[in-house]
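Blackboard transcription, Thursday session:
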Amino acid sequence: MSTPYAKLPAWADYGLIPLINLSVAFIVAGFVVMLVGENPFRAAVILVEGAFGKGTGIAFTLFYATTFIFTGLSVAVAAHCGLFNIGTEGQAYIAGLGVGVVCLAFDSVLPWWLTFPLAIAAGAAVGALWALIPAYLQAKRGSHIVITTIMFNFIAASIMVYLLVGPLKPAASQAPQTRNFLAGAELPKLNWIIELFGAKIRSAPFNICFLLALVMAFLVWLLIWRTKLGYEMRTYGHSPKAARYAGISETRIVLIAMMISGALAGMMTLNPVMGDQHNVAIDFVSGAGFVGIAVALMGRLHPVGIVLAAILFGMLYQGGAELAFEMPAISRDMIVIIQGLVILFAGALEHMFRPYVQALFASFSPRSVGIEAVKGKGA
Amino acid sequence: MAQAAIELIGINKSFGAVRANRDINLEIARGTIHGIVGENGAGKSTLMSILYGFYQADSGEIRVGGKPASIKTSNDAIALGIGMVHQHFMLVDNFTVLENIILGAESDALLKKSIAKARSELERLEREYGLEVDPDAIIEELPVGLQQRVEILKALYRGAEILILDEPTGVLTPAEADHLFRILKQLKEQGKTVVLITHKLREIMAITDNVSVMRQGTMVATRETAKTTVGELAELMVGRRVLLRVEKGEAEAGAVKLAVKNLTVKDSRGVTMVDDISFDIKAGEIVGIAGVAGNGQSELLEAISGIRRAVSGSVMLDGKPIDLTGAADPGELRDRGLAHVPEDRHHVGLVLAFEENENSILGYHDDPRYLKGPFLNIDAIMADAKDKIEKYDIRPGNPRLKTANFSGGNQQKIVLAREMEQDPGVLIVGQPTRGVDVGAIEFIHKRLIAMRDQGKAVLVVSVELDEIRSLSDRILVMFAGRIVGERGPEATEGELGLLMAGVERQEAAE
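(Written on the board underneath:)
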């Protein structure tokens, strides 16, 4: 007897189920909005219009999405290797050091298009090295990567606070941040792309990192499903015993997967630091690493899903800000609740509706779920 | 005939368009042992899952003890006195035996009392049925044979009146199986009813009172065991005549391919599992290792294939040593022509979540044939997978299907195809036909013999004595980590059985 609920067609797996989860999240969020005495439908309209209604909104949505694509990919790469990297937050934060130092050193000498690749390399390298330590402890000492990466988030935060109130801060400044970068470390905006479609943009930080994020999404897809390394990572992720049998070194694969994950986390830094603030400030990551976990889960660890989920979360960030502005009863914290509900239904309760959908599909068309009809003889 | 313990009337169950059970009628008499045979996918497990509350029948009626019963969950089944021992054990690996037995049957919030009660109850059951297990042993540290005992104890502890065993002897030796059968007979004498799902006809003949045969979701026939034959049952199962024992010519043994010398291996607890073993395998012969599960065969296989570290001793492959100090790389051994079909295909030999074609390169993914630089050569992999599907008659023949959706026999064929098609000099195979149906067993045995006839050295470790005797040119018997005897294929089952039970050589020879 084979598993009766074998498999869903890809469109249901990647489209329908996330959609159901999302709808439920919004319905529950709607009740929350009703509880504070506001009209949930009007709130939904404000949220969506805030995110996509105007050119500026779209630009902000995509700016946030860029950040989440990087962190989502970071979590996904580790997850394909069976590693739960909670440390994306810290890896991104500490990578600010690499990006910041490159920018401060070269912004007066080099044009942006030379500073940018150096900053990518520096951010990725610092993020990767920060992830390497927990990875090494996991592979060699068996220290659980969830615990160590959480701890490393705190260490990263402490180091950055120390640096930003000390060595990296201009002597005369009161603000815990580096000096502002010069033009040589400012990334070009992509707002003109949106303006091509006729939308007006006042000012928004949507920048070239978005393209980098899309390139990375493609490269991650290539890595996971088309390379030998990705094959080895997935083997180890599904079954460490099978990996051992197949001659895949546990130490090597864990270290490599975590370093790639850390590098992607580190590249997230480029977007806010070089694309928006033009300095390294305290807490510039502000939870994007944790959102990356939800994005990765909701995107079902697939780069396409991750890009879509990242845009959704970008929408929640941007639209949520508008909503808090338009509806005084809905505070910033309410927005966090709504985001939390999306994470809850899309991430944590991912499998809640799955059995029902599978049963439904199985009863309509068994072939579509991969069950073979009984043949002349089984073997 | 005595009153029926269970009656199934017109049971139908479909998964979509697949009718796993159609119009099943079955009556199981109280106090009997009733066998249900059929190939994998015949619907035996589905039927029993309906009886045990995992699935609901689409239509039909279940009567337990003459009364219509509604079994919606396994708790309902347990309440009706139905206990089940699954083919794949439902045990918590890092719990002790005792903890597993009380799991779900704890009587208090504080476990102390439950455990004390369970301990005395367990001792009684162990005494009564001869099911000895250390109650404080951790499950994952027990050999599979003992884990199964725990499953049986679990059902008995819950007061099962009707015991369903799904392929219970897949992991047992004849001695252990005989022990199990004695237990089952004792249960029967006490008025309990036993349903035995199996595809091993020898067992059916040995202990059942009645036997029902399933094929493609239907109940083909029910016979009184005493009035049927193995041949008839096999034909009913498969729908055609089957060869029960493979025919093979004389071995033409050549040079020594694999030489194991004074090999000692310890398990994770530091217990010596393989104790100073020496043997060798020549080109063109099949050496079978017989033994009761848990006597070091698994560790021996793992050490030779580079998965487990050896404490001392040496293994020479084609006259050159294998590094056993822990740095052994299974990939390097593959390059040197040592192929390994592991005992546990679900967790070791295959990645069940992978597509078939991905599993068809597992371990050989370094082979330049399957690569284009750092990239996988998908076209080559797919072509290769299709080729193997054709050659090994793997069904369904879809290389994009998830491996978990193949039957046990076909999964094993995927592993065998992968390992054999690499044209290795030495092939080591653990439990070649565990959980594999009759039709596929025949196929696999023929393939192994074909390998031998091509001049390969083949090592087969199996707890199926029939299999060992049918395949091997030389039989080594392992007991408590040592090789306690070597016999030719003509050795009788009784003789080997004594060796497997650890009876000294001289005595066995008498």
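Lecturer's comment: Residues 1-6, 368-379 of chain A have pLDDT under 50 and may be disordered.
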